[in-house]
Design goal:
The chain is α+β, with helices and mostly antiparallel strands. It is built from two helices and seven strands, in the order ββαβββββα.
């Protein structure tokens, strides 16, 4: 039984014994048209908890993933999950407001392109605006280093881009 802490409110979610186990969504791989689609924003009234739960399950099942975007599980919505420090953070409708800190080149992989790794140049720091799972807006939050790289990678997926897989 795992415990996951989401960004926003410090809420934890545990799998409860006796509850029906939900199937883990499959991660879509290269060639799937959804990976090239621009995703739609999440509307305020939408219940995205099941989507986020599925994303976290898929990320955990991958064993080596540190981030996932909703289109990677077949959902064309603007949701990402980032787990740079082992605690998944769900970000809804993320927008990168500002890139800073200069460019850093590092090797990246992608769960949708298994076994493929490329050197990718990305900004060291980013400021983003997003909503958490409670609908609370977070404006111009600064992320740095590995977490900033993961956010940039996952936000690319929301626009149908995967640089590891060769661009759009």
């Amino acid at each position: 039984m795992g415990t996951y802490r989401f960004l926003g409110g410090g809420q934890s979610v545990k799998r409860i014994k006796g509850r029906k186990r939900e199937s883990v969504p499959a991660i879509r791989t290269w060639g799937d048209p959804i990976l090239k689609m621009e995703c739609q924003p999440v509307e305020a009234a939408e219940n995205v908890q099941p989507i986020i739960r599925g994303m976290i399950q898929a990320l955990k099942k991958s064993k080596n993933g540190v981030g996932l975007a909703a289109p990677q599980i077949g959902i064309a919505k603007r949701i990402i999950v980032v787990a740079a420090n082992g605690f998944p953070k769900a970000m809804i409708n993320p927008v990168i407001d500002y890139y800073s800190g200069g460019a850093v080149v590092a090797k990246e992989g992608c769960l949708s392109y298994p076994g493929v790794f490329k050197n990718i140049s990305r900004s060291r720091d980013v400021e983003i605006t997003f909503e958490d799972i409670h609908g609370v807006s977070h404006k111009e939050v600064l992320f740095a280093g590995t977490e900033a790289r993961i956010i940039q990678h996952e936000c690319d997926h929301l626009d149908g881009i995967c640089r590891v897989g060769g661009g759009k």
